[in-house]
Amino acid sequence: MMLHMQNLKKIINKITASNRIAVISHVSPDGDAVGSSLALAIALRNSGRTVDVYLEDGVPNVYSFLTASDTVLSQWIGKEYDAVIALDTGDIDRLGKCVQVFNSTTSRINIDHHITNTSFGDYNYIDAKASSAGEIVYNLIGMLGLGINKEIAECLYVAIATDTGGFRYGNTTSKSMQAAAELLTHDIDVSGISRRVFELVTEKKVRLLGNAIGTLEISSGGRLALMYLSNQDKERLGAAAEDFDGIVNIARNIAGVEAAAFLVEIQPMEIKVNFRSNTYVDVSTIAVKHGGGGHKRAAGCTIIGISLLDVKTQLKKELEKELH
Description:
19% strand
């Protein structure tokens, strides 16, 4: 714990001493990546610093209502920074092309909540007990002596709410609820945000969901659920990366299911996998085995060089082993 706090103090000192800062996060950004990155950037900009946010795949449309989302850059523009902060990213490969930004400075800061984080920064702060990167950034903004306004509160609320599944997942704690309660004092539209983030879906996603459900396979006495989407179906439906978000939960939420996986064939021999579990299976161990990472109940990886059906067969065996 002492070393943990020392690392955080070093990060606070480095950020305080920096005027030109870049904030980056992982490929295929989710609500936590987007919300925490924008919140920290806005807070630092309000303190007079120059801050750029980089997300290789840009901001998913569902989060485009957040303040400053239109300022996000997708690739390094050659600028020099006093510090670069990577948020919500388990390992350096997950940064994608934004690794160029990360390596453009000698002050590389890694702030995350994934237990599988590889501590790839020059300065690392990993709090696996935090519900989200957004919860860490909420505390960090306070420690830096920076204020929270309505725009920052919206970003942080989206970050925390999405990573806790609307405060329904096991990573929800009293601290995450307390943070959310404080954010509500800034008069944010919780109902409007919740509808945008959790309820509204495109026709394309509904058709994609129907296709995925059509592949549903239940095994291990009803405890394992698998779904997949082939590259051919993905292209036929015109699916974008953000359309896959949350589909794995359909399989996990089936009564009796303990573990679930959703496989997407990005292109032939490149399979992206999302894992979920409910109570006792640690899916992060399987994700790490295949070069990925995440949490005990939610993890992911990308498997290259094996066909979609072969990956499904292999992962089915590995998950069945964990179940037994």
